Amino acid sequence: MKAKIGALSIVAIALIAIFMTINAGGNWDYILPRRAKEILAIILTGCIIAFSTMVFQTITNNRILTPSIIGLDSLYMFIQTFVIFVFGSAHFTLMNNNVNFLISTGIMVLFAGLLYKFLFRREGQNIYFLLLIGLILGTLFSSLSTFMQVLIDPNEFLIVQDKMFASFNNVKTDLLITSYVLVIVIAIYFWRYIKYLDVLSLGRDQAINLGIPYDFVIKRFLIVIAILVSIATALVGPITFLGLLVANLAHQFMKTYQHKYLLAGSALISVIALVGGLLIVKHVFTFSTTLSVIVNFIGGVYFIYLLLKENKA
After folding, report:
1. What is the count of structural domains for the chain?
2. Which residues constitute the domain of residue 87?
3. Model-level pTM?
4. What is the DSSP string of 170-214?
5. Any idea of the CA torsion for 140, 141, 147, 148, to the nearest 10 degrees?
6. Positions of the chain with pLDDT lower than 70, given as ranges
7. In this structure, what CATH number is given to the domain that contains residue 179?
8. DSSP codes, 64-127
């Protein structure tokens, strides 16, 4: 297992080295700092998406679900559209990335906290009830966003449209320090609960029989997932299928139940996919398409393959 992690690490480091040095033309003082910020943002985003999706699939015991099903992506677009609809695109919450990031993340985490608090007031609530409520609220937010988008000025709509799709070519690097600090704090908090993931993958009843405080642990995991998804969405925008793709590839490649290897493997596969994909977009397609389009196309095809595979099983 360590050999597989080592092989993935070598591939990831090699791709990062190519990304940092290709076509530099000797302008190292100009090229390296800019590419270093970009690669740090890509690594952070890739690890966050892989980590949150892997944990979400474990606690729901379903490998075709991602955290976006609980409506966080739709809520992010609703917040951005609402601010432009009410205050205009020149409002300081949109002009300042840090303010926009903190407000968006704060509202998304508050929404997730209220949702989980309401649903877990009683012991024994089914987590699939949470997913159903999240799906309904996500549809509501999406419908409200569409309603406001058809009413706003076309020039304002272009700004909303820019936020509707993930962009790895224009990552908000000024949010890096805030994002890394938040992720480090979350990692320290989460570390004490990582030992429960292997048992939780057996299912709710088995986990309770083995002495896991199920509802208590699940609530903590869901709050952590909400914060991580909020950070990733604020950094690059909503991206649907990357987590699904890398989490399932990690399961197939690692072939283990131990989450310490699955989490590390999925994070490395995510970094390889993003850095390798960005190299192809830049130097093969010369920006004629975007990485998010390629990821969503491959992820969508893979999602259909998983559905057909599960249907036959």
Report:
1. 1
2. 1-311
3. 0.83
4. S--GGGHHHHHHHHHHHHHHHGGGGGGHHHHTT-HHHHHHTT--H
5. 160
6. 89, 91-95, 118-127, 162-173, 240, 310-313
7. 1.10.3470.10
8. T--GGGGTHHHHHHHHHHHHHHHH-TTSHHHH-HHHHHHHHHHHHHHHHHHHHHHHTSSTT--H
